[in-house]
Structures are given as C-alpha cells and as structure tokens.
Amino acid sequence: MILDKQLEFCSSQAVTATAASTNLIDFGAVRDMGTGTPLYVVCVCTVAMTDTGSDSTLAVALEGDSTTSVTPDYTRTLFTFSATSAAGTVKIAALGPDDLNLQYAQLKFTPANGNLTTGSFSAYLTTSIQRYVNYADNLVIS
Questions:
Q1: Cα–Cα distance list, 7 to 93, 96, 104, 123, 140 (Å)
Q2: CB 131 within 8 A of CB 76
Q3: Where are the extended beta strands (E) located within 83-115?
Q4: pLDDT number for residue 28
Q5: Across 21-103, where does the E strand assignment appear?
Q6: What confidence score (pLDDT) does residue 81 get?
C-alpha cells in the first residue's frame, strides 16, 4: 500500500479532547485520486486509549466544507473506538460518492462517556487497503 502525504489527515495525533485532524485535505490540489475506484478512510490507533473508568469512546467523523475554515457543510460519523482500543487497532470506512463533494475535508475526533487520558491516531485516505492476514502454520483446510 502506498500512502500519499497529501491524503493524510493526521500522523500520531494525540487526542484527549474534541479536535480536528491536524491536516486538511484540499481536493483542488490532489490529482487523479482513483477516479471510479472505491475510496477508504483508514484510522489507526498508534497509542492505546486509556481513561480512569474504561468507559470512554471516541467517535471519528468526516467533515467537508467549501472553505478552509471548515464550518462543516457535510458531516458523517465513520466509526467509533472504545476505551480498550489497543495500539494497532485499525478501523476502515468505505466512502460513498457523496462523501467527498466539497473541496476540503478533515476528520473530527470526539470523545464521550469519560475522561480520555491517552490515545493517538493516524488517519489517511486511500484507494487500497491492507487486509493481509497471517494464519498459523500447518493449517488444514478441507
């Protein structure tokens, strides 16, 4: 899988309170982004989430706008991480044709139900997702 820096929402961004992704994707600058190919948002927990009561959740939403100030004209919640999400937890969301109709897009991280004390995330937009599974040796398939 190839990652394009222009399609990166964030890289190991620490999230303990509501925050927008560190990067804003400008679709006016991105070229040939898989026309006719399915697009995916991939978000990876890079530092385990913790909180005092183990009851926090973190909603990740895609926001779009026609200006860089991003007062969202479009919002779609893609997925939710739980308080027990370990480092390496990956969430993937397929995007529909209406998800990227505006020039600018960012992710919005919104914690709920507790006091989130740690958690970092990397997220990007891609046309190909890594879905390799390593199975145990000597597996008999009949």
A1: 15, 17, 11, 9, 41
A2: no
A3: 90-95, 104-112
A4: 80
A5: 25-26, 39-51, 57-65, 74-82, 90-95
A6: 94
Measure the CA–CA gap between 35 and 33, rounded to whole angstroms. 6
Query: What is the rounded distance in angstroms from the CA atom of residue 52 to the CA atom of residue 46?
Result: 19
pLDDT (0 to 100) of residue 17: 92
As a whole number of angstroms, the distance between CA 99 and CA 104 comes to: 11
What is the structure's pLDDT at 29? 76
The whole-angstrom distance between residue 90's C-alpha and the CA centroid of its chain comes to: 9
* Separation CA 53–CA 137 (nearest Å): 39
Other Cβ atoms within 10 Å of 123 Cβ, number: 24
Q: What is the pLDDT of residue 111?
A: 93
Tell me the CB-side half-sphere exposure of residue 138, using CA atoms within 13 A.
Answer: 0
Q: What is the DSSP letter of 53?
A: S
Return averaged pLDDT per consecutive 10 residues of the chain, 142 residues in all: 83 94 87 73 93 89 91 91 90 86 91 88 89 66 70
